[in-house]
Amino acid sequence: MEKALAHIDWSAMTPELILVTAAALLIVLELLLPDEASRDWLGWLALLAVVGAGTYVAVHFGATAVDLLQGSYRTDPVAQSFKLVLLGGSALILLMSLSRENREGIRARGEYYFLLLTAVLGASMMTSSADLVTLFVGLELLSISSYILAGIRKQRTDSNEAAWKYVVLGGVSSAFILYGMSFVYGLTGSTNLFVVQQRIVEAYQTGYASFVLLSLFLMMLGFGFKIAAAPFHMWAPDVYQGSPTSVTAFLAVVSKTAAFALVTRIVLVAYLQLIELRVWEEIITPLLLVIAGASMIIGNAVALRQTNVKRLMAYSGIAQAGYVLVPLASLGMALFESTLYYLLAYSLMTVGVFAVIMAVERDAEHGELSAFAGLYRRSPLVALTMTLMVLSLAGIPVTAGFFGKFYILINAIATQHFWIAAVMVVTTVISYFYYFELIRQMYFRPAPKGNPLAIPISTAIVIGIGVIGTVGLGLFPNAVLHALGQLKWTEVLSIPQTPPGP
Amino acid sequence: MTVWNGLPTWVTFSPLLGMLVLLFIPRQQNRWLKWVGMAGTVPPLILALIMFAKFDPQARGVQFAQNVSWIHIPLPQSSGWKLSYAMGADGLSISLVVMTTIIAALAAVGSMYLKERLKSYFLLFLLLEIGMLGVFLARDLFLFFLFFEVTLVATFFLVGIWGYMERERAANQFLLYNGLGSALMLLAFISLMFVFGTLNLDQLQVRTSQLFAHPEWMQGPVKPVIWGIFLCILVAFGIKLPAFPFHTWMLRVHVEAPPAVVMIHSGVLLKMGAYGLIRFGVDLFPPLVHQMATCLAALGLVNILYGAALAFVQRDLKRVLAYSSVSHMGIILFGIAALNFTGLQGAVFQAVSHGFISALMFLIVAALYERTGTTMIDEMSGLAKAMPVLSGVLLAGGLALLGLPGMSGFVSEFLAFLGMFKPYPVIAGIGALGLILAAVYTLRAVMAATFGPFLDRWERLTDSKAVETVPMLVLLGLIIAIGVYPQMLGEPMQTTLQMIVTRIGG
């Protein structure tokens, strides 16, 4: 079993290695560069690293699963697809924060870029881990980087408050996850997910059922926090509002995608065998569905009363988290496909929306909804692109967001969970109100200023990709569906050929 | 016929041509924007008329059919879902398509009163036309839903930006009700997909017939699902129609939307409800409709009487027309509930006829409002002296509205009630009261507005201009043409309706 480090096929880890090298390089350069030197090119370096990592994943997309480091690290179809989504999202966010205009008062540019890189690295590790320890390391790498990023505008009180809240509540949630993981280890004697999968049934049947469930509940508490699902969502609005917009976009897109990768992997791989004991059906599904339903209801209902755009997006994100949980909860027939499709659509539209928010916020110097007033008269094209992406978030055809919801709805109905389908449908209609409030501001309200909104070129590219992706995936979802349909998801759930020792 | 296979697609997407040209016209060029906007409705009109001319009334089934596979959702343990881009026209859709293109063209002319943001107005207007035409021509339920939602979004903007004082509330209410309706529709369609494995209309017809041919399904687990789907469809299109008690949003839109949009809304959008009820309710679920027929008839009765009674007490001409629409939609429900050939024919006739009549009435209201600055009946008093032509057309429109023989409204109401009297003589008898009430409220409103004491402030008013008179006369001509020669409308739909009636066994 013991392999020398030299014999390990490190190429499977190339994306992570690129990211870690670039992050290290950035730290060193930041230290060596004189204080007055421009740090703008560090951002380009970071972007290059993320694009490079993404390209590597894209080129090797669809390859069979590879196990590394005694089975604690794995590149399989799930990891690859999640990684593509989050690397793509990160690249767009980096591109968005590159331009001179979009600095948002972030003074420590070098720090900002390498923290983003370490956060992406953590996210990337989370998608590829098959071991509780590596999962947790990835999670904490992502979390701690995010805490600092949230508070990177040291001189601003709201940024400080955001970071403070995020650290405290994030720490608590990590503790819950760790506590849950410790039960798993105690019950099965292993941290490897596939070993856990085999042994947890035994533990369940030999009188430790309550502990098995306790471990799951504790972890779900923490996961609920990480994906900002109700009722663990309280941090999201404050953190979203206080962070710089680029960081908010990162939290909304990359952090959330990574957290979903984590939830999917742990819940599905570790507890999969419980399906046969009907535990899934009787306990896990209702538990997840309640979280999903609560997220949809609370997220959409509270969003109605928001006047700050980023808070609105936070509640919208809470609601969207509820939608994405449905396929996992119901063990729908196209679980991975629909989850990934939705996350991809969500990333594209959310990044695009945040790019517009960033430009509008800078122009109006505040983040209230009224900053969007009359945008249509000032910059019709920006207003139109924003409209398309907001319509997509609301789930109006012919957009990616619609098809994503449609796909998830199929899962809910196929598994006969009609009540969650009904909740989805009703809350979606409710969500029209606040999404259309943005549209009302842009089209129905008079503009306070007459000048067109200034959009830096890099932001324009991000918005362009967001819109093209949103509409393109809405009209021709087949492009992605076909690729997703080709992947062998079952490999993810099955045990690797040579199960590693405890 | 193969050359014409793409015709429905051409008709549906031909407004794109106008949109494309509009994009290149600067925002300030109001004159040009108006002309191009109006011209943009001509290609679909011409193509629809070509389609109407090429349509073979004797042929059974769909004509100009087109079917391209579009989205394939891979699913484990099955071949997955195939959604297709399927378009085509049958007797039910052809007349509605022609009506849509005519009303759209005239409503574009009716948009002349608008003064601001014309570019986006006409872009949305043409987008709305694409949606409406697509709704009537789609042969796949998923595709139907997409077009349906396009009309929703376009109408929201048209009402919310260019409407009157309370436009935003109207737009919001429109969005809420219709959003809920579409959501129910989507749930129904997805469930249909699960039960029958397809969303293609022609395949669905075959598979539902197969299911209903075996009465055992009533005992099976599929029964509640089928009923659920059916009720969702009824409510979804009931909201759109609108059937009582889902009508409140429609009143607001009628009052607050800009005149041209009300022409479209009252003329075409409400008819999508009727179309959906017949196409997806009656045609796909015959045995269920039979069980619900009494309920539909009762709803129709409530619509007729409630709408008529409230139309009578309104003092705003727009509200009179709005409530009269509620009343007239009840007649469509009657026609459907009758479940026989005559009744269904009456329902479709009423859909088309009311489309033209209400478009005409709102065009006149817009012209009056433009001159007098009011739509309150009491304040209009004595218009006939200052504007004989407009008042004359208003009177003629009113006569059409109350169903004077020789005009389209009479034929439709006659057919619908004739169909209704066979299965439900009592309900039909009470419903007939609505016809009398219609005469009362229409004449009261029209007379009070045009005759009565002449007001001095009307001295300087000008009568209607040619650009207003022409569309009015075209509509009036169509209304009379259908009234005098109903075969024009009846012939193309005959075969299709007969097929539906055979399926429902009525």
UniProtKB/TrEMBL annotation, chain A:
Signal peptide (residue range) = none
Swiss-Prot/TrEMBL keywords = Cell membrane, Membrane, NAD, Quinone, Translocase, Transmembrane, Transmembrane helix, Transport
Which reaction(s) does its UniProt entry say it catalyses? a quinone + NADH + 5 H(+)(in) = a quinol + NAD(+) + 4 H(+)(out)
Source organism superkingdom: Bacteria
Alphabetical list of InterPro entries matching this protein: NADH-Q_OxRdtase_suN/2, ND/Mrp_TM
Q: What is its EC number?
A: 7.1.1.-
The NADH:quinone oxidoreductase/Mrp antiporter transmembrane domain covers 129-431
What Pfam families does its record include?
Proton_antipo_M
Similarity annotation = Belongs to the complex I subunit 2 family.
Q: How does it assemble?
A: NDH-1 is composed of 14 different subunits. Subunits NuoA, H, J, K, L, M, N constitute the membrane sector of the complex.
Q: What name does UniProt use for this protein?
A: NADH-quinone oxidoreductase subunit N
Q: Which gene encodes it?
A: nuoN
From TrEMBL, chain B:
Subcellular localization is given as: Cell membrane; Membrane
Keywords, sorted A to Z: Membrane, Transmembrane, Transmembrane helix
Q: Coiled-coil region(s) at which residues?
A: none
Q: Which InterPro entries match?
A: NADH_Q_OxRdtase_chainM/4, NADH_UbQ_OxRdtase, ND/Mrp_TM
UniProt key word Repeat: no
**How is this protein situated with respect to the membrane?**
Multi-pass membrane protein
Q: Which residues cross the membrane?
A: 6-25, 32-53, 92-114, 121-138, 144-164, 176-201, 221-239, 260-282, 288-313, 320-341, 347-369, 389-412, 424-446, 466-485
Per UniProt, residues of the NADH:quinone oxidoreductase/Mrp antiporter transmembrane domain are 138-424
Q: What is the first-listed, main subcellular location in coarse terms? A: membrane
The family note in this entry says: Belongs to the complex I subunit 4 family.
Sorted alphabetically, which NCBIfam families does this protein's record hold?
NDH_I_M
Name used for this protein in its record:
NADH-quinone oxidoreductase subunit M
Task: Write down the species.
Answer: Polycladomyces subterraneus
